[in-house]
């Protein structure tokens, strides 16, 4: 499961160029060409980083940025704003509106890639680190293995991805729909009950004897990696 980056850009050639380069770096990329569509999508799924164009149809990048900062789910989402040359004063506005960084068009792609990497490393080391830890559970992304108290957990590929997904955002409650979207992918049709089945399998694989269940069922909402377990 690679870091997920959303690119909101209405200039199609630029969106394609960014997608190509980001995918080559190993990121999962989603491109959206309207500000209002991006806002709706961000209600469903929050990426690890947002590349946001300033001028967009539907809703401007700056207004979207402002709104995102008001929502707890996205108040700390790393945002890189793309601005056109000559918008110097607007750039300042961009930063005060809550973007973490800005890049002036036309920009060098390698420089943007470097900034994205640096920002991810700073903002969410758990997204790019090879080993994730939560309580007595350790997940090694490179070796594709997970351990609890040193014993290796026997996880199917879906359970592994599910555990990784939870461990990336400890304490956060995910709806079944968000889990389907994040773990199975949004283009695959799977019944929401499938989530329950796989969470059940994950629990069975992770918990032995009197070990504490790291996964919390939140009635009417979904599942979370229990933050009491993490600390
Ligand atoms: Ca634009």
The helix fraction, in percent, is 40-55%
Cα separation of the termini? 24 Å
Shape type: elongated
Instruction: Give the domain tally.
Output: 2
Order of helices and strands: EHEHEHEHEHHEEEEHHHEEH
The unreliable regions are: none
Global Rg = 19 Å
User: What name does CATH use for the topology of the largest domain?
Assistant: Rossmann fold
Mean pLDDT, all residues: 90
Strand order of the largest sheet: 2-1-3-4-5
Bound molecules: calcium ion
The name of the CATH superfamily of the largest domain reads Response regulator
**Tally of helical runs:** 10
Main beta-sheet annotation: 5 strands, parallel
The total beta strand count reads 11
Output the CATH class name of the largest domain: Alpha Beta
Could you walk me through the main structural features you see in this protein, from its secondary elements to its overall organization?
It is a single chain. The chain has 231 residues and is an alpha/beta fold. It has two domains: 4-127, Response regulator (Rossmann fold); 131-230, Winged helix-like DNA-binding domain superfamily/Winged helix DNA-binding domain (Arc Repressor Mutant, subunit A), CATH 1.10.10.10. Helices cover 43% and strands 21% of the residues. The protein has ten helices and eleven strands. The strands form three sheets. The chain has a five-stranded parallel sheet, with helices on both faces. A four-stranded antiparallel sheet has the order 6-7-8-9, covered by helices on one side. A hairpin with a 2-residue loop joins strand 6 and strand 7. Helix 7 crosses helix 8. The radius of gyration is 19 Å and the shape is elongated. The two termini are 24 Å apart. The mean pLDDT is 90. It binds calcium ion (CA). Calcium ion (CA) binds at residues 10-11, 53, 55-56. The site of calcium ion has 5 residues, from loops.
